[in-house]
Amino acid sequence: RATALALPDIAARKGKDPLVCLTAYTTPVARLVDPHCDVVLVGDSLGMVLHGLPSTLGVTLEMMILHGKAVRRGVEHALMVVDLPFGSYEESPAQAFRSAARVMTETGCAAVKLEGGVAMAETIRFLVARGIPVMAHIGLTPQAVNAFGGYTVQGRGAAAERILEDARAIAEAGAFSVVIEKIPESLARRITEEIAIPTIGIGASPACDGQILVVDDMLGLFTDFRPKFVKRYAELGEAAQGAVAAYADDVRARRFPAPEHVFADKPKAKAGAGA
Ligand code: KIV
Ligand code: NA
C-alpha cells in the first residue's frame, strides 16, 4: 500500500469497491489510519473532539492548518483532505480561494472540503478552475447547526428534492466527491445513482460509494455524543480510564515506580539497558 493515491484514483472508484475514509487530527493517528484508508480527512470536528468546543463554529483556519501540518507528516498513502472552517469561505469565491490556498500550501493536502450545495456551487467552480480540488459536503452540514436547530436527519419527505438539487449543483460545479451526512437511505441511493462523482456517506446507508467516520467516535475515545450512525469498533476511552485509575492507585500506594523503573548509581552491565 505504498503508492500514494491521487485525485483520479478516488474519482475512478465511483460505483466500484467502497472508498474507506476516516478523520485524523494528529501525526500518530494519521500513521495509524493511513495504511487502511483511501481518504484521510482533517475534519473541523476537531473543534469538538480535541478542543472541547460546543460545535464546529469556533474552529479557525489556524487550527485547521496546525492540525493539517501534523496529519501531513503521517500520511503516505491516502488522499489527504482538509476542511475549510466556518467563516473562512462563505463570503465569496475570492475569500474561499484565499483560505483554501493557505490550507493547501501550508499543510500540503491534496484537496479541501467545504459545506453547502446550491449556495456553494459558484465557489466550488471558482476553486476548481484555479487548481484547488474540492470535496463537497451536503445533507446535515454541522456548520449550519444553528440554522437547522440541531443535528437532525435531513432530506426526509419533500426536503429530499432540495438535497438532490444540492448534489446535482456541486457535481456540476466540479467537486471530485461529496460527503453526504445523515440522510435516509432512499435519498442516498438516488444521489449516488444520479451524480457521476463518488458519494461518501456518514449516517447515509451502504448505498454510498464510500463511508467516513470520525476516528475518535469509532474508537470509543470521544463519547460526548453517540450518534446512531457510529459503530464503536473499540472502547479505547474505557481502556484509558482504567489505565489512568490504575496509575493513580499505584502512585498513591507507592507501587509505582517499581525497581525496574529506577536508575542505579552505576549503569548495569546489561546490553540495551538505556541506563
Ligand atoms: O469534520 C468532520 O469530521 C467531517 C466528517 C465527519 C465528514 O466533516
Ligand atoms: Na467537517
From TrEMBL:
Q: Which residues bind Mg(2+)?
A: D44, D83, E115
InterPro entries noted in UniProt: Pantoate_hydroxy_MeTrfase, Pyrv/PenolPyrv_kinase-like_dom, Pyrv_kinase-like_dom_sf
Provide this UniProt record's keywords sorted from A to Z: Cytoplasm, Magnesium, Metal-binding, Pantothenate biosynthesis, Transferase
GO-annotated molecular function: 3-methyl-2-oxobutanoate hydroxymethyltransferase activity
Q: Name one Pfam family in it.
A: Pantoate_transf
Positions annotated as active site in the UniProt record: E181 (proton acceptor)
Query: Known CDD domains for this protein?
Result: KPHMT-like
Binding-site residues for 3-methyl-2-oxobutanoate, renumbered to this chain:
D44, S45, D83, K113
**Compartment annotation:** Cytoplasm
Name what cofactor the protein needs.
Answer: Mg(2+)
How are cofactors bound according to the entry's free-text note? Answer: Binds 1 Mg(2+) ion per subunit.
Lineage, top-rank taxon, reads Bacteria
Principal location listed in the UniProt entry: cytoplasm
Q: Does the keyword Transit peptide apply?
A: no
Question: Which catalysed reactions does the entry list for this protein?
Answer: (6R)-5,10-methylene-5,6,7,8-tetrahydrofolate + 3-methyl-2-oxobutanoate + H2O = 2-dehydropantoate + (6S)-5,6,7,8-tetrahydrofolate
What does this gene product do? Catalyzes the reversible reaction in which hydroxymethyl group from 5,10-methylenetetrahydrofolate is transferred onto alpha-ketoisovalerate to form ketopantoate.
Classification via PANTHER family: 3-METHYL-2-OXOBUTANOATE HYDROXYMETHYLTRANSFERASE (PTHR20881)
SUBUNIT field: Homodecamer; pentamer of dimers.
Q: What name does UniProt use for this protein?
A: 3-methyl-2-oxobutanoate hydroxymethyltransferase
**Lineage of the organism:** Bacteria, Pseudomonadati, Pseudomonadota, Alphaproteobacteria, Hyphomicrobiales
Report the gene name. Answer: panB
